[in-house]
């Protein structure tokens, strides 16, 4: 991806102070989503890493990961698998509870979403502490699929989420803050 394209994407990400709580600087990606050229550039950039790979499925994390994941799956000619918050999928699931800094959460995936040996990319809009992405990686591993890597639109490097994932899969982020 060209430096000019990265600059245009970075300029479109809006900082929202004190959201969702005081002291947090939220990275708002909705301006990128609203602009077809920027959205295309974001997906192109995320797809570059896997362009020469055979990808069977892209796993997207609830909720903005559904946007990036589904578009990335289309670009790579792969199927899309949603990983959702506990209790949101309509059929039999495999789930995982995981710890956050302030409590716990849970995610689920359909039991038949991935077959052993399928080649998978994990996609989400943001890598922060890596808790949710790490749990999604574990679900992929439990399905005995082959994780090719994790693709994020934004990485908040100071939260060190990459450290939770790097031993299990290559981590690729388009924009790093």
- The secondary-structure element order is HEEHHEHEEEEHEHE
Helical run tally: 6
Structural class: alpha/beta
Main sheet properties: 7 strands, mixed
**Total number of strands:** 9
Radius of gyration: 16 Å
Q: What global shape is seen?
A: globular
What percentage of the residues does DSSP assign to strands (E)? 25-35%
- Widest beta sheet: strand line-up: 5-6-4-3-7-8-9
Stretches with pLDDT under 50, minimum 5 residues: none
How helix-rich are the residues, as a percent range? 25-40%
Mean pLDDT: 96
How far from one another are the termini?
17 Å
Q: Can you put this structure into words, describing what you see?
A:
Helices cover 33% and strands 34% of the residues. It has six helices and nine strands; from the N terminus they run αββααβαββββαβαβ. It has helices at 3-12, 30-34, 36-48, 64-76, 131-142, 161-165, and strands at residues 14-17, 25-28, 57-61, 79-85, 93-100, 103-110, 119-127, 146-155, 171-176. The strands form two sheets. Strands 5-6-4-3-7-8-9 form a seven-stranded mixed β-sheet, with helices on both faces. A two-stranded antiparallel sheet has the order 1-2. The model has no long low-confidence stretch (mean pLDDT 96).
